[in-house]
Amino acid sequence: MDAEPMTSVASARRPSTARRVAGRLLIASAVVCVALGTVLMLAPSQQRAEAPLVPVVPAAPPAPAPGAQARAAVLGGLPAALPDLAMLIGEREAYLRVHPKDARSWAVLGAAYVEQGRRVADAAYYPRAEEALRTSLRTRPKDNAEALDGLAALANARRDFPAAREWGEESLKLAPKRWTTYPLLIDAYTGLGDYKAARGTLDKLMALHHGPAVQARAAAVYRDRGWREDAAAMLSDAAAGARDPAEQAAYQEQAGELAWERGDREEALRRFREAVRLDPDQRAAQAGQGRVLAALGRTSEALAAYQAALAKQPLPQYALELGELYESLGLEHAARVQYDLLRARVDNAAAGGADEELLLGRFEADHGDAMDAVERLRAEWERQPGIAVADALGWALHRAGDDEEALKYATIATDKDHGGGVRSAPYAYHRGMIERQLELTGPASRHLQEALRINPYFSPLAVPAARTALARLGEPPDVGLGEEDAGSEQR
Q1: What is the dihedral of CA 186, 192, 195, 197, to 10 degrees?
Q2: Phi and psi of 25, rounded to 5°?
Q3: At what angle do helices 161-174 and 181-191 cross, to 10 degrees?
Q4: Domain boundaries defined on the chain
Q5: For residues 430 and 298, what is the distance between their CA atoms, to the nearest angstrom?
Q6: Do 159 and 356 form a contact (C-beta atoms < 8 A)?
Q7: pTM of the prediction?
Q8: What are the distances in angstroms from CA 252 to CA 279, 300, 345, 368?
Q9: Distance (Å, rounded) from C-alpha 143 to C-alpha 30?
Q10: Tens of pLDDT along 469-488?
Q11: 359 in helix, strand or coil?
Q12: Which of the 8 DSSP states describes residue 409?
């Protein structure tokens, strides 16, 4: 009976004991908080030293979808990766089936067709591009600079430089501060031989916008003026500043071309390889590798590089280069196969509205009918008298036996007073061979020597011919770079 009251007493005491324990815990916690606060207030520097704060880095924004990336590229006149282009084209085609009155989307689709046609060397894209761009103009006839820019880009891709100038200038009237129009006009003016206008347009572009695309465009203008060091520096900066791999690859390929033009085989090969690493669809860089590998004596690799380029981007220019390489190796049948491919590709380009008369004239002058070449190139000179056309027409006239008139055009192509500032081994070679035929021994020796000094490997067929011609002219004078050339090298 005593146990029950004792149990009751113990039970009655438990709440009091629990309250006392809880109170002590609260007091202890308060003491700890005060002490911790005191430490934080009195010794903040010591706390930071012992436990440094880690800055919070915001998460990077997600990369744009491939279609959106390609859309930004084509509207900005930038290179785009082929898979992204294909995705963009598919997206815009599907969208326009449902929204056929969207003028901006028609312009985007047209620009994407132009870039796709250029990248895969398929002129069949060009009529589709023209239809899309003209549909954009019909849908929105006024204030449609995007469609006008697209038509200018299309005309440049077709080598119709008068039309490119017309569309580009009309676009600038609508939007004078739209920087993406200026590169299109620079290409058009260059193709027309209006180098003063090209330089002036570059100045306006650089005042409006900065960045890799502008640097690459400046490099092309500097190259045409003979400022190769400035051009190389601009391309290096452009490649370093570009974000998209396809854009980086395009600038690396251009840097490789510049290195090749000055005979730097190792630098050219490095640039071309980097371009292909960044963008496996960069076929111009693959063809560039073929050019350099042939100059290095690595013939099997050179042939493989050319064949890989032609398989995916069958440009007539690549077929001509490969055919001449085969010819230099004594493989006449293989060369004829490439020359037949060249003619077929020129026909396909013409069906798509593209002008390949310059390349066809060059080919006919050396491997076909020289009189036909003269006729074609005269018409081309009348329509768009650029430096490249002057050189080709002069050479065709030489091959047709008219060296007096040939020298006139060869001089235009190589004389800075006429705009021919570019330091080109083929141009110097052509002028030297024409002068040799006219028995102008001193100038002939000087220009043939200059060609080999600029690039001792510029052509598997022309380099041996230049060396033979120099030997027949006698020992060439031991002349270094002249003051004018040295100044160009230092720019």
Answers
A1: -60
A2: -65, -40
A3: 150
A4: 314-354
A5: 27
A6: yes
A7: 0.83
A8: 10, 24, 27, 35
A9: 72
A10: 999 998 554 444 443 344 44
A11: helix
A12: H
